[in-house]
């Protein structure tokens, strides 16, 4: 029944799209023939671009009047986290929380320096290309570079590619351009993150991607209004091919089709969704309000709707999937020091996490699925108004904009929060073996991908000895011996306590 509804809706898009939908549904992808693999069956890597602890805190104060993870400094100069109550789903007790270091190739993070010299974290900060590469490939690179080795320029295998090698499906979803640095680093490689048209082309031609969703539509401006075509983020030929159904992708752009994917009325095996807006779903629109969520573009989906649609497409693969979901414009509000839209973007991301949690509980389980909620770096040095040189908390009351201080218009090298739940959590927790004076246990942004690649490769190897896992090589030796992911869904209680100090 669903299938006939699916085709009816697809037919409404265009005759060409219908033909592709039928072809795609009838084809057998390499994923279906691959061997079983160890480690978490499904991995959902959610990244709030620029989302530091205080981006979450500011939104929590706006919603409830209080927040966790705020800091204060005593007279001896020791910085500690203040008590607070969880607000978001990922702050609840059934999630684990540690911290994550984000620095680029050749840089470092020194916790003692970060909490004694207010300016320390403004130096040598990572960008989203280097951080995305680290999270996607398990290898540090230089700012501006996507998925390539910092010295040799060699392609670094990413989690989407390893997902495909181990029989899984893979996809990327973003609230900014589909080929912006973070989604691109989980998809392809390029010497320069700004080569949008080339990166877009590579993503459209990538055999290992099953879902790509984001902004970057050539025929709409940032207010979602039609404009004379501007091929900044997708080449004219690529756009013509993908939107007319000449490629293997099923193509959607209407908000109603994104909603039909989320509800399950519209189905696809390989889906390219280009929201009808230029650079980002909402953040760059000109119509402003005094509080978050006023005068929204109404012709685009929210991140939650896109995420549900992507999960419905990827979740059909019995071997599992990898999905990266980015709240991409949190970063842009940080650069702009725009508190109203910062909360708005954070709320959009938070709602997407809630939808993902619901999807896992309705369609999968925490035994099969690992969910990570984190950031690639902090943006805007968002802290208390009276910070510098101290590290003071944000303040405010529910329903009102919080009192905040933006102490930079750039990224910082501060640790960011790293929340996770589900399959492989115990092994992930063991990686957080470094200790920050204020945030407690932390791991580095290359470590989750290394762990996942190693454990997925082990399963691949044992299943098919004749098919050695090439992807284990370029990422170098692991920094931690690990026992493999996926044996236990719940971390030990002491690890959880340790993480929350
Ligand atoms: Zn940025």
Mean pLDDT across residues: 88
CATH architecture title: 3-Layer(aba) Sandwich
In terms of DSSP E residues, the strand content is 15-25%
What is the CATH class?
Answer: Alpha Beta
Cofactor: Zn(2+); Mg(2+)
Family: Belongs to the alkaline phosphatase family.
Protein name: Alkaline phosphatase
Pfam families: Alk_phosphatase
Describe the structure.
The chain has 16 helices and 17 strands. The chain is of the alpha/beta class. The chain has one domain: Alkaline Phosphatase, subunit A (3-Layer(aba) Sandwich), CATH 3.40.720. Strands 7-8-6-5-9-1-10-15-4-17-16 form an eleven-stranded mixed sheet, with helices on both faces. α1 (2-13) runs antiparallel to α2 (15-26) and α11 runs parallel beside α13. It is globular and about 65 Å long. The N and C termini lie far apart (51 Å). Zinc ion is lined by residues 50, 128, 331, 335, 379, 411. Residues 454-501 are annotated as: Disordered. InterPro entries: Alkaline_phosphatase (IPR001952), Alkaline_phosphatase_AS (IPR018299), Alkaline_phosphatase_core_sf (IPR017850). It comes from Brevibacterium daeguense.
List the helices and strands and how they pair.
Layout: H1 2-13, H2 15-26, E1 42-48, H3 53-64, E2 71-73, E3 79-81, E4 96-101, H4 111-114, H5 128-137, H6 159-165, E5 169-177, H7 181-185, H8 196-204, E6 211-215, H9 236-243, E7 250-252, H10 255-263, E8 271-274, H11 303-314, E9 321-327, H12 330-335, H13 339-363, E10 369-375, E11 378-379, E12 382-383, E13 405-406, E14 411-412, E15 416-422, H14 425-431, E16 434-436, E17 440-444, H15 447-463, H16 493-499
Parallel strand pairs: 1-9, 1-10, 4-17, 5-6, 5-9, 6-8, 7-8
Antiparallel strand pairs: 2-3, 4-15, 10-15, 11-14, 12-13, 16-17
The protein binds zinc ion.
